[in-house]
Amino acid sequence: MKSFDLIIMGLKNLFRRKTRTILTVLGVVIGTAAIVVMVSLGLGMNESFDEQLKQMGSLNIINVTKYRNTPEGAAVNSKEIVLDEVAIANIGAIKGVQAVTPVMESYVKLVSGKYLAYTPVLGIDAGVMKDFDYSAGEGRLLQEGDTDNIVIGSIIPQNFFNPKNQYSMMGGPNQKPPVNVMTDKLQITFDMMYGEKQRPGQGGTENTKPPKLYKVRAAGVLVQSNDWQKNQYIFMDITHLQKLIKDANKAQEQGGNKGMGGIFGNADTSKGYERLMVMVKNIKDVDGVQKKIDEMGYGTNSLGDLRKSMQKQAQTIQIVLGSIGAISLLISALGITNTMIMSIYERTREIGVMKVLGCKLNNIRQLFLFEAGVIGFFGGLAGVLLSLLASFILNAVGKGIMNSGNMGMGMGMGGGSRISVIPPWLAALSIVFAIFIGLVSGFSPARRAMKLSALEAIKTE
Amino acid sequence: MENIIEIKGIRKVYRVGSEKVVALDNIDLSIGKGEICCLLGTSGSGKSTLLNLMAGLEKPSRGEIIIKNIHVEKLDEKRLVLFRQKYIGFVFQSYNLLPSLTALENVGLPLAFKGIPRRIRDKKSKQMLHSVGLTSHNNRKPSQMSGGQQQRVGIARAFVGNPEIVFADEPTGNLDSKTTSEVMNLITDIARKSNQTLIIVTHDTNIAKYADRIIHILDGNIEKIEAVTPLGAITN
After folding, report:
1. Measured between CB atoms, does A354 come within 8 Å of chain B?
2. Dist CA A98 CA A85 (whole Å)
3. What tens digit of pLDDT does each residue of A123-154 get?
4. Would you call A326 an interface residue with chain B, using a CB distance cutoff of 8 Å?
5. Which residue among A263, A266, B125, B210 sits deepest, i.e. has the most Cβ atoms within 10 Å of its Cβ?
6. Using the beta-carbon criterion (under 8 Å), do A12 and B101 form an inter-chain contact?
7. Per-domain boundaries in chain A
8. Which residues, 6 or more positions from A426, have their beta carbon under 8 angstroms from its beta carbon?
9. Could you give the ipTM of this predicted complex?
10. In whole angstroms, what is the distance from residue B182 CA to residue B94 CA?
């Protein structure tokens, strides 16, 4: 029998019992839509997680510290871990690592004439800055040999204020910043009191020498990004930062704060760096690289850790949601089986006649499988359309709710994130799956039809 | 004359619960090519069983059935289907047309099972319907036709593939006497015209008169064989 004839015949049979076919298809529609919507909610959750993580920094970066947490949670002290040039070289040699830099953090006041800005500073290896996903909006990134050149986070220019004018802080992000960081003179100081009015009653510091100012030049300003660190920090070469900190510490000690050494940061490099930052080229390798660094005895953490735990959480929710959907699809599968068995009872004689007239056994099986598959296909197709509609409504309604919620909380988290995401693969997969369900459900009825005794079927009652 | 069907020492026993029912006791029979042969007997005589055995719908308990030099009793399901496709046509008492198909499609069904393309199928089916006297019923569903018309479609379906043997099981059982004679004339005419072997099972002696030879069956045995025409006498 030609497949075309088989298809026509199967469709005719389905069409003959419209109501039942439609009801069975409806079962599959609901099952498919349930699964697709449930999975789409899980995917939407993942998407918004990822979006949130991106705001927290690059997912490709692993932080390496001296302090290591064993799986039991206790710090291991048996061996002194040193993050030195050797460590940098070793970690840099791991496959998949793009760049490694030592990191030092401190807090400074950026000074430009009468304007001030508080800002954290990150000391990194000037030569590898470009490898860490930074990009300059103005000027350039740090380069090998930069000393008093700094790169400024994108919103720092807006943070300048005039301490003499109380209202200047109200400027807001839309006002033109008072300082052009690229051209104006810039200085940094580690003294947080610089430029502020001396408050009375601070006896200990009355004798201090005026704080030291260090001249810097802006090499560039970063482009605005989702990563808060890239917006809020200034960046400079780590060796120069260490030098400045050492100098500032010394000045502070001379100024009568003896014994409080290192208040601006630990610039002592004899025991290595506090922290390294490792850039992994491919996000898929982050886990593997992190594991290898762990094995070398260093403590590591990355946003990947957070991501993993978030994903695990999302997965649990997805499994729960998916199971609910799966139950409804299972029921619709039973519906298909039931319909096909009913159909066999009704068509027993017909099947017998077909056999007597020389219809091949395979053709009979194919006919029933085809009918079941068509029910699955149309159910899946309509189910996907229904869930696209549901997803659209969820997103439209949900966005309003989420946005108003965000405004209430005063944060712009997950601006464009959707509640429900149906990627093309999900749509395609669920249609294929619905067909598969149809075929599986139709398998045993089709076998039954094939094995029907022709004689029993055509016996005159 | 060459024998197209040879039946040797056939016995068929059914088990009903723990009891054995002998449907066919010991049958030997030869049927010639182009012969119209009638199996005549009362209900329960075993005549239908004999037909079913010949068509391969049932297996004998013992004995041989040789059709076109093929041992039908030894064929498995798959081969039986192909065997029927090739050599056998069927006319049923209750017509057994597929209700979802039109008359034309019903007639073309055996051809469709053989994998013959629709265009050729439709052409042959139309001719066949024409020769059974149905010209304007091509696109009617079985439910829109009378019993006589349905049986004509059934006959067209049995003969459309030009099979060498056609089995007809009480072909007029559901028809009135006028239609019966029409249908019987039709079926025997077609069979004679193209030298096809026709085996009719009936309990009606009037029907039996259309055959070349009448085989009286009683309690699972051949009671007597009666030649109606010279052709029947030859085979005898």
Report:
1. yes
2. 16
3. 888 888 888 878 888 888 888 878 888 888 88
4. no
5. B125
6. yes
7. 3-56+309-459, 61-281
8. A36, A39, A40, A43
9. 0.90
10. 17
Of residues B81, B92, B100, nearest to A360 (C-beta): B81
Q: Looking at chain B, which residue has its C-alpha nearest residue A456?
A: B57
- To the nearest 10 degrees (0 to 180), the angle between helices A348-356 and A361-409 is 140
Return the CATH number at B165: 3.40.50.300
What is the pLDDT, as a whole number, of residue A267? 57
CA distance B234 to chain A (A): 31
The SS3 assignment for A26 reads helix
Gap between the Cα atoms of A237 and A243, Å rounded: 10
Q: Of the given ranges (A38-42, B29-33, B62-66, B100-104), which has the lowest mean pLDDT?
A: A38-42
In 3D, which of A275, A284, A319 has the Cα closest to residue A304?
Answer: A284
Q: Is B200 among the domain residues? A: yes
**Interface A-B: count of C-beta contacts within 8 A:** 70
Calculate mean pLDDT across residues A396-421: 60
Task: Give the domain range for residue B190.
Answer: 33-60+76-227
Which residues of chain A lie closer than 8 angstroms to B113, CB-CB? 1, 354, 357-360, 363
| CA neighbor of A450 nearest in space, from A334, A377, A347 | A347
Q: CB–CB of B112 and A349 under 8 A?
A: no
Of all residues in chain A, the one with the smallest CA distance to B169 is A460
Percent of chain A with pLDDT over 90: 15
- Condensed to tens digits (0 to 9), the pLDDT of residues A62-77 reads 888 876 655 544 455 5
Residues A102 and A276 sit within 8 Å (Cβ to Cβ) = yes
Asked whether residue B206 is domain-assigned, the answer is yes
In a mutational test of the A interface, the residue from B79, B111, B113, B169 whose CB has the highest number of chain A CBs within 10 Å is B113
pLDDT in tens, B132-187: 988 888 899 999 999 999 999 999 999 999 999 999 999 998 889 999 999 999 99
B55 contacts A355? CB cut-off 8 A: no
Confidence bin at A103 (pLDDT 50/70/90): confident
Q: If contacts are CB pairs under 8 Å, which of residues 66-95 in chain B contact chain A?
A: 77-78, 81-82, 84-86, 88, 90, 92-94
**Which of the listed ranges A86-90, A411-415, B102-106 does the model predict with the highest average pLDDT?**
B102-106
Dihedral of CA atoms B176, B179, B185, B189 in degrees, nearest 10, equals -130
Is B170's CB within 8 Å of A460's CB?
yes
The pLDDT value recorded for residue A348 is 87
Q: Is residue A202 scored above 50 in pLDDT? A: no
Is A4 close to B118, i.e. CB distance below 8 A? yes
